[in-house]
Write a structure and sequence with these properties.
This protein has helices spanning about 5-15, 15-35, 40-65, 65-75, 75-85, 90-100, 105, 110-130, 145, 160-165, 205-215, 245-255, 260-275; strands at about 135, 150-155, 175-180, 185-190, 220-225, 230-235, 235-240. By secondary structure, the chain is an alpha+beta fold.
Length: about 280
């Protein structure tokens, strides 16, 4: 049998359960962070930094560039600090996800289902009227920073109240409504805009919806004023041009609530009643 090199033998001798767990934790953390930045501008920045560092390392080794070699050896701390600054939004989102317990959603599923039903009805009523709207449904992440930018309401959620907020004649029509549980916490709220590239047909409402869902686990329903289309944003992604059934299904999936056939039947019945009228 060929003899095992001494360096490899030393590695194998030191490799134990603790080392295996250490490797798994580091590998899993890196993979999780890559999943967080996938499809975002941070991924492009990460690729650029990687290409730059690999190119500088290879060039310095091939041409024996002593200054660049010294800079690369002594720049680890600076690179780590720079990565913390550049990827601050992604790191914040990762820590925020770790802090979610999920208990709040589990204990209030029945109230959530009523909330989703009211919001879906209101969104499509606004769409038929050609009224633009932004409806934010809070999940685990608190949205106090968002509600502080609007007008506090703390009113019971209802379709009629949502329909009265967004018409252009009202003072709150340009902002977003934040729904928490079974109540409207605030209206006229300002949402952070996304820097991600979006299709040309999406306007400022869509960019604001994506911006909030990039930073939190909130769900945002967007009603387009120009096209009368209803879209759904979550996890930094937009699902456009939904009908009532598809929107209801998506919301039930996001809130981990079983989508019963009677919910679909009620939506279909309401649609048939509107067509008959």
């Amino acid at each position: 049998m060929p003899e095992i090199p001494e360096g490899l033998r030393d590695v194998l001798v030191r490799f134990d359960v603790s080392a295996a767990v250490d490797i798994l934790i580091v590998s899993g953390s890196i993979y999780w962070l890559l999943l967080l930045v996938r499809g975002t501008t941070a991924m492009t920045v990460l690729r650029g930094v990687g290409v730059l560092l690999i190119g500088a390392f290879l060039l310095s080794r091939v041409l024996d560039l002593r200054v660049i070699n010294w800079a690369l050896r002594n720049s680890v701390t600076g690179l780590l600090l720079g990565m913390l600054i550049v990827f601050q939004p992604e790191i914040r989102r990762a820590l925020e996800r770790l802090g979610r317990t999920g208990l709040h959603s589990i204990l209030r599923k029945e109230e959530r289902q009523d909330t989703l039903h009211i919001v879906v009805r209101a969104a499509f009523a606004l769409a038929r009227e050609g009224t633009g709207a932004l409806i934010v449904i809070e999940r685990e992440t608190g949205l106090q920073e968002v509600t502080d930018t609007g007008i506090p309401l703390h009113a019971s959620l209802s379709t009629e109240l949502l329909l009265s907020i967004f018409p252009e004649s009202g003072p709150l029509h340009d902002g977003a409504v934040v729904v928490r549980g079974g109540s409207i916490v605030a209206a006229g709220c300002t949402l952070p805009l996304s820097d991600s590239p979006l299709p040309a047909e999406f306007g400022m409402r869509h960019r604001a919806a994506v911006g909030l869902t990039e930073r939190t686990d909130a769900v945002v329903i967007v009603v387009s004023e120009e096209r009368g289309a209803v879209s759904l944003s979550s996890n930094g992604r937009m699902v456009p041009n939904l009908d009532e059934t598809r929107l209801s299904r998506q919301l039930h999936r996001l809130f981990d609530i079983e989508y019963h056939d009677q919910v679909e039947g009620a939506a279909a019945g309401a649609a048939s009643e509107r067509r008959a009228s």
